[in-house]
Give the backbone structure.
Amino acid sequence: MLTCEQATEKASARLDGQLDSRERLALAVHLLICNRCRRFARQLAGLVAALRKRELVEPVDQEFVDRVVDRLDEVSPPQRPP
Amino acid sequence: MLEETRPDPGSSSIGFDDDLVRRLKAGDRNAYREAVTRYSPRMLGAARSIVGPDAAEDIVQESWVAVLTRLDGFEGRSALSTWLIRITTNRAISHLRATSRQVALGDTGDGEHAAPDAEWFDQRGRWVAAPAPWDAGTPEELLSAGALQACIDKHLALMPVNQRTVLVMRDLQQRPFGDICNELGISASNARVLLHRARLRLFDMINGYRKTGAC
């Protein structure tokens, strides 16, 4: 029988398909009888789902773009476009 | 050489990508400026999430150099953005390895950071107190608050670097577990532990945020 601490680890791994059939069954049995772990598993799944919808984006300014393009020109001089 | 791994059916800009890649391969300088302008924000976001703000711009710049040299090998099986993010992430990981101050990427300990679940369980592994209920009904509601998003960014930056790297690659970039293990040179079991501990940190932060409105 899993402890709650073990069940939280399994609940996290389940989100990534990392449990074998024995682990999945053990977790399912534990969640049937433990409402605290059920709440944790549900909230963790919500958190991870929300993270997976996020896109990490940082603004770049024209100066940065110019710097990168200049660096690329150093590596490979510009060619005439077709 | 960085290889594409699988088709990326989720891309909504494949037509644009195809034309841009064709022009990039032809050496069109305007295409380079367009690509750098369009994709650098995401590359910078990826780099910064792993190495922090100080080294991120240099990593993105050198990633573009790598793109230039590897472009002939890009066959369009994935979206261009996916390929660029992958190159950037690899560069960021290389930077971590080269920085002597960083812990080994496979180290699963919390190091100098407090364990997020240190007081959650008793000696028998049972909850000391029930997890606090979150009143948000959907993931979108959960992260809709701009303040909470800022808290997540803040706590990502505060995490042990190995935990943060696995979380970014898995939950923010949706990289397969096998890719993460291969690129970081860590075992699947270590990756699971690192990811779990990183998720617990954000979980614990949200508990605090829900209670106090601060992080």
